[in-house]
Write a structure and sequence with these properties.
Blueprint (H helix, E strand, L loop, with lengths): L4 E2 L2 E2 H19 L5 H9 L20 E4 L2 E3 L2 H11 L6 E5 L5 H7 L4 E6 L2 H13 L5 E5 L12 E6 L8 H5 L1 E12 L3 E8 L4 E9 L12
Parallel strand pairs: 5-6, 5-8, 6-7, 8-9
Antiparallel strand pairs: 1-2, 3-4, 9-10, 10-11
Bound molecules: S-adenosyl-L-homocysteine.
Length: 223
């Protein structure tokens, strides 16, 4: 019954709500227990971060193509990375790999400001348009090679990298405040999410989830 209304909501809106609830239950089962993170995932409309061809699949727990050979991350991975970041509302966060802007929007709900870097111009332009349309004003986005971080804005309370590095980039560790946390996928075919905590004397490391991300690529493409 397309177009049918239940208490003023369209059938499509009700169906989307049911899909979001199912996704949130799945995330809980898979270890996402932080209610702030679950609530941020609930509030960010993932269907606005995928092309219309994928709207029906927006609330599946799956990565989806977003153009330029890249993907929007799986919701479980976005949620687990965000949870491990342990964000506070006054924090300044650096994100490498804006992609669709979905992870950025989730972060923006939980901290003071997100600085995000993307190397593909068309992806960056689309993500910025989504931030404007959704009224997300605490994001500063720029085109660049994020493997260099964002020296002018460093140091950061938190850093998240959403493309896989071969090793932990020392440049990024250097842009983290003491006590700060960085979450990133490390590895080539076998990757793990790694949590790096900067301490007075050096860094503490732990890994928490096997994943598959697109690679972190140095330099800029020609598009
Ligand atoms: N968080 C994104 C995931 C995007 S996939 C989302 O939720 O949609 C990873 C992104 O990292 C891609 O868009 C890719 O272009 C970008 N990327 C890879 N290497 C990069 C680099 N050195 N600097 C900036 N962005 C990079």
């Amino acid at each position: 019954m397309t177009g049918a209304c239940v208490k003023g909501k369209s059938g499509a809106a009700v169906a989307a709500e049911a899909r979001i609830i199912r996704l949130l239950m799945e995330l809980r089962r898979e270890g996402v227990t932080d209610t702030r993170v679950l609530s941020a995932i609930e509030k960010v409309p993932r269907e606005r971060f995928v092309s219309s061809a994928f709207t029906d699949r927006a609330y599946e727990n799956a990565a989806l193509p977003i153009g330029s050979g890249q993907t929007i991350s799986q919701p479980l991975v976005v949620a687990r990375m965000t949870q491990e970041l342990d964000l506070g509302e006054r924090m300044k966060v650096l994100e490498i790999g804006t992609g669709s802007g979905y992870q950025t929007a989730v972060l923006a709900k939980l901290c003071r400001r997100v600085y995000t870097v993307e190397r593909h111009r068309p992806l960056l332009a689309e993500a910025e348009e989504r931030f404007r349309a959704l009224g997300i004003h605490n994001v500063t986005a720029r085109l660049g090679d994020g493997s260099r971080g964002w020296p002018e804005q460093a140091p950061f309370d938190r850093i998240i990298v959403t493309a896989a590095a071969h090793d932990i980039p020392p440049v990024l560790v250097g842009q983290l405040k003491p006590g700060g946390i960085m979450i990133l996928p490390v590895g080539e075919t076998d990757q793990d999410l790694v949590k790096v905590r900067r301490t007075e004397g050096g860094i503490d490391l732990s890994s928490f989830l096997p994943v598959r991300f697109v690679p972190l690529v140095e330099g800029l493409p020609e598009d």
